[in-house]
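Encode chain A's predicted structure.
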Amino acid sequence: MKIGISLSGGGVRGIAHIGVLQALNEGGIFPTHIAGVSAGAVVGALYAQGITPTQILEMVRKLRLRQIIKPAGWGKMGLFSLEKMTDILLQHIPHDSFEGLQLPFSLSATDVGKGESVLFQQGELIRPLLASCSVPFLFAPTQASGRTLLDGGLLNGLLYEPIADCDIKIGVHVNAYDPQSPLKSLKGVLQRCFNLVVHHAARQNLSKFDFALEPTELGYYSATNLRKAQELYDIGYKATKNILPALQEKL
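Encoded structure for chain A:
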């Protein structure tokens, strides 16, 4: 039986995906096909490589933002660059290819020149992966496959098509936001605008899945605070435990 899981973007809130995968595995459910966008693409790629959820969580706990990003420099098209992530990802996915992964994996990024969502399923992996995480304004666009690419969540925040043929389809949306959170700065307004775009782009596909997870309490967490890693993981884990009986019955 083919079990597909799609993991949305959400910045640091994507750590909740690790808890989702751990709870599924503990319940004897092992996805056979993975799709991801932005943070969900990073977690999905590591899992497709054969790295266990507990190992991924341990990696995240050791990370600091300064290890992932660096200032892009004056005149660049974003405040920061994700290039430092390349070395980190190569440590765990040294073959740098979709074909080298243990499970079929898909990710999307947004071609800002042509205004279209681009699906990646073969060839070079890490540059498209960085592109899928490149939040506009915050990060400079990534060049891959002759395209200028930004965050995949801009146009398709929760991939469905790559796992549409699976017998069981699970969608996980972790980019909730708190509508009561006050807007006190330009940064806050820009972040809310991006969250709204990605949130609605993801929810368009949510109803298509056999099982959909959307932990609303994630909206109270910052998309950039790595210190809350365990709490975010726990939210994903507990939400998945709640649907496990129904999922196991379906299987």
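The radius of gyration is 17 Å.
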